[in-house]
Structure formats: structure tokens, C-alpha cells
């Protein structure tokens, strides 16, 4: 029985933890930013390193007792360098958002200017949304995707760079199904002497495996989350050239954080090790093939995809053309009832609100981890379509619910 030790002292928390394990086993996780890490990553994350203080960096700490902390952090750094080919890596950011804050703190002053993609077009809160600390600290201008094609409007980006004269331009997105053209963003940054931050939070694993082109060596800074496609447990990472290494390191600590979350750094080390294997390359390639199969089947059934397809791990469905009276939230709620978990999402040219948008976003990283192939993903596409088409029909719900049970039994996750 999992969580027996916790259960001995705290049955309430043990029940919730066991319930979550069962929920993950019994449902299809299609939130594009989610994944399932290995038991090895989880074991490393629950190690005694949660007890250490290790302010500083390997070989140069403010506390004693860091012999093994140094080993673990150095392994994470070395493996990250091998995975992404960066000159310098900082594995201490507590999350992807804090990795971005670390870059801002390293090279921007309050009031400096950020040019980033609009949140409702696929950007991220930490790229300067007014509710986020970045939006409160810096002056922000935003570019968009072309509402017709769904692709980033690189010409508009270049024109906005010219007019706004930003200090940093951010590429890399949260809900973007297409390959990012790093060089075009870099050209815009070069033309106004701005830094370029490529935030690969979602696609860390795809970039590491060569399934998506890499911004490392092009952009000045590359940030990411470590719990999405790279499957290394919750956290963030910053990569840059040696030139910016000291600024980045001192921005993360002591600029932004105190002691690193070393047990999570251990999870990163183990996950990065797993990602250096040929199995991970196969995994990443299957993630992309699965997203393509999912998208094609949704299209065959008559749903419209933003940009008419995908190059990555996710698809974005615009419900308006096929089901004008159905919102993303309706579909999200109806699918959760039958054990398919994804999220409502805004679409380019959104005519509803960010809270009740017109689209859904669906990703294949977590399904692929549990072994789904293209055929299984086409089946899932059919199930999603049935619910979109009849969100509250009980017989459809019963049928889909049963199919989800069969799929989760066929592709087991945690013992
Ligand atoms: C997920 C994401 C992040 C970081 O999220 P955290 O939850 O802070 O790790 C940053 N940028 C983008 C584009 C993202 O999608």
C-alpha cells in the first residue's frame, strides 16, 4: 500500500496522496504541461537532501555539510549541459517562472522594456502580464499570432521591436502548436540591440531529443521548466553563455532565492540522466507523432485546429467553427467527468473571455509516458469528439467513461 509511513502518523494526508495516485492511474492526463515522472525521480525528490541548506553553488557554499549536495547538483549541471549543449547552466530555480525572473534580474533594471507574446495568443503570465511581478516591474509590449494562420506574426514582432525598442524579447510559449523560428526572433532582437530570452518550458524534452530546433547558441538566455516534457520533477533551469554566467548565478542566489530545493535538484539529475538515453529519444519522437495523430483524427471528425495542425506535443482546438454554442469550459468539465483531463484555452481572435474561452488545449506527453501510440491517440481523439459533440448526453458519457477505463487498464502507470 503506498504511503504506509505517512498513514501511520497522518491518515488524512495519506488518503489524499493515495487518492491522487489513483486519480493519475485512472484518468488520461492531457494537460499539455503535465507529465508523469519515473519512480526513480520521485524517490530522489523525497530524499534526505530536503534537510540541507546549500546556499551558493557546488564547491562554494555558505554552509558546511554539502559534500553530497555538491555531487548531486554537479551531476544535474553536467547532464543538462550534455542534453542541451549550453555553456553554462543553473539548475536552482524553483520553477520556470523563477527562471525567467532570474534572467530579468540578471540583465534588466526596473522600468526596462519587455516585448513578449500576448497571453491570450499563447504566451505566459511570467512574460509580463499585468498581474505578474514582471508586468509590475517592467514596461511590457506584446506581439501576437496571426489570427488567420495561427502562426507567430514575426513581421509584426519585428515592427513592434522597431517601434518599442525593447531591452529583451521573449520567445517560447505555453499554448503554441508550431515550431518556433528562433532565428527570426533573434534577428528582431539584433536589429534593436535587445537580449533574446527563449523560454522552452513546454518543449525542453523535445529540444533535448532533437524533435524541435534548439535556441541554445542562438538566444542569449534559454529558460525552462523541468517537469513538463523533460520529466525531471518540478523545478526550473536557466542556460546561457559563459559571458552571462555570473550575472545569472547571482540573480538566482542571492538575488531571488535562498537555499536551493536540493531534493528537487536530485530529481532533475535523475530525470536528466534518463533523458540522455536512447529510450528518451524514442519517447520524444512518439510524443510528436502522437500529437500529430490526435490532431489529424480530430480534424477528420470535423474539429478545427489553430494553425491547422501541430509540429509539437500539443493541439489547440478552436470550437467556434464546428460547435459555436459550446465553450472550452463546457468541454473541459464534461471531459473531466469521464476521466479525460485537459484545459480550456483561449484561441487567436478570442471572442469570449480568458475565463470561459472558445478553445481546448490537449497534449500527448503524459499519455506517451504511459505507452500510448498513434492508434491509441486516435481512439482518444474519437472520445474527445463524442463529448464535444454531445457534452451532457448520458449514454455518450457512459460509453466514453468505459473506454477510458479500458485504456487506463491497458496502459498502466504507477503500481
Ligand atoms: C509552464 C511555463 C512556464 C513556467 O511555469 P512554472 O509553473 O513556473 O514552472 C514558463 N513559461 C512558459 C512558456 C510556460 O509554459
UniProtKB/TrEMBL annotation:
Cell location: Cytoplasm
Gene Ontology biological process: glycine biosynthetic process from serine; methylation; tetrahydrofolate interconversion
InterPro entries for the chain: PyrdxlP-dep_Trfase (IPR015424), PyrdxlP-dep_Trfase_major (IPR015421), PyrdxlP-dep_Trfase_small (IPR015422), Ser_HO-MeTrfase (IPR001085), Ser_HO-MeTrfase-like (IPR049943), Ser_HO-MeTrfase_PLP_BS (IPR019798), SHMT-like_dom (IPR039429)
Major location (coarse): cytoplasm
Gene3D superfamilies assigned to the protein according to its UniProt record, in alphabetical order: Aspartate Aminotransferase, domain 1 (3.90.1150.10), Type I PLP-dependent aspartate aminotransferase-like (Major domain) (3.40.640.10)
Role summary: Catalyzes the reversible interconversion of serine and glycine with tetrahydrofolate (THF) serving as the one-carbon carrier. Also exhibits THF-independent aldolase activity toward beta-hydroxyamino acids, producing glycine and aldehydes, via a retro-aldol mechanism.
Protein name: Serine hydroxymethyltransferase
Organism lineage string: Archaea, Methanobacteriati, Methanobacteriota, Stenosarchaea group, Halobacteria
